[in-house]
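To: structure desk
From: M.T.
Subject: fold request, one chain
Message: Could you run this one when you get a chance? Sequence is below, nothing fancy, just the single chain.
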Amino acid sequence: MTQLSMHQRLPFDEATTPPRVSTGELPQAEEVERLVTEAYQRYRATTEGQVADYIPVLAEASPDWFGICVVGARGRSFEIGDVDTHFSIQSVSKPFVFALVCDAVGYDAARRRLGVNSTGFPFNSLMAVELNDDRTMNPLVNAGAIATTSLVPGTTAEEKFERIREGLSRFAGRELSVSEEVYASESASNMRNQGIAHLLHSYGRLYFDPDRATEAYTRQCSVEVTVHDLAVMAATLANGGVNPQTQETVIARGVCRRVLAVMATAGLYELSGDWLYEIGMPGKSGVSGGVVTVSPGKGGLATFSPPLDPAGNSVRGQLVTKFLSERLGLNLFASEPVRPQP
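Reply: Done. Structure tokens follow.
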């Protein structure tokens, strides 16, 4: 008997077939507020980790900055701490730009051209490109992310970036802009990304001029957000691609679930397995201290705290996310057993 290939299209149209999705709700508002406050108080005094300094302007961040925000799939928001502090989105942009590209070119074409498998290497690894035949491997490491940016519709770097900025703004529910200070600092220190782009170009796995693609990618990482923005963006993924606060459909639901699958397997780079084992949610971190996690059907959680562990992930962010994943019932793999009927 012939087995159905994973790459074959299933015999139904995702755009018209009613979805079967995870169910569940966040706890009552008072309970969410209490637990978010408890998480903040529990971990605010944590001093482990170091603020990133390989991009000079990031080294200026205060290690004391700390914010938490939860946005439910129905739009309720709970936040505490430095929720109005602006910081550059950095690598947290990667899954959202991947979503925009999947929406533009189709998720099957995006998988063929970008890959979706974990590399097992650090985010900026050149070895991962050389050792894997697929080269880019997935859109959440730098090589795949630069290739993803190169696939954004547009004939110039400016057009591509504007498409990205507009898309990220729809995810956040407000107009976002670039920190020119961060962009200038990153542009002066992104030689490794330039090298990755040229290496991909030599293998035919970049889809735009390598220098201009790197320019657009650097601007993408320099977009300014708050922890509230990130929570709304995560909640949009939790809500099947519909922003729960503006009610705008940002991406199709078929795209949304595939983006979440890649986040689950590659969002925390070489520690993604540990993350999924402990947290049980798709997530993504960034070197400026942002972390987003998504509980499909329930909501999005975002944290902001600049001190990082050696793998480049926020120390407080990981502690808060584990705590709230357990207390708010966000873990995708935590289920109650079926009880026998009396």
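Reply (cont.): The longest strand covers residues 67-72. Let me know if you need anything else for the meeting.
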